[in-house]
């Protein structure tokens, strides 16, 4: 009988764990900062970079998005953000210019936006170009 109870609890807990978007063993780390010719950014070096300061929950903030690659020029971008702790999913972009404009060398395209995260925590941001997944990064949102 003890084995049956143990096995039942084990099966149920594994089933519930499977409902989460994130593996509890997955190491989620805030994306690092890096420098380039446009200044200090955070994100994924030579893939996607954001110029913007510390993010505070419930406050609008300006972000300058940078996407590497000629294939993103003059395309639209969007994002989905997921709070790692609560699985809350939002569109963090409140105002944007939609189209990615290339820099002089054409290797990086950029666009300004205004973002807002409703609550503190660690957020995984998934960036899309023309509705196709491009890259993801992790940001910490402070109270």
Automatic annotation (TrEMBL):
- What is the annotated signal peptide range for this record? 1-17
Pfam families referenced in this protein's UniProt entry, alphabetically: DUF4871
Domain of life of the organism encoding this protein: Bacteria
Annotated PROSITE patterns: PROKAR_LIPOPROTEIN (PS51257)
Name of the protein in question: DUF4871 domain-containing protein
Per UniProt, the keywords (alphabetical) are: Signal
Gene3D superfamilies linked to this entry: 2.60.40.3830
Species annotation: Shouchella clausii (strain KSM-K16) (Alkalihalobacillus clausii)
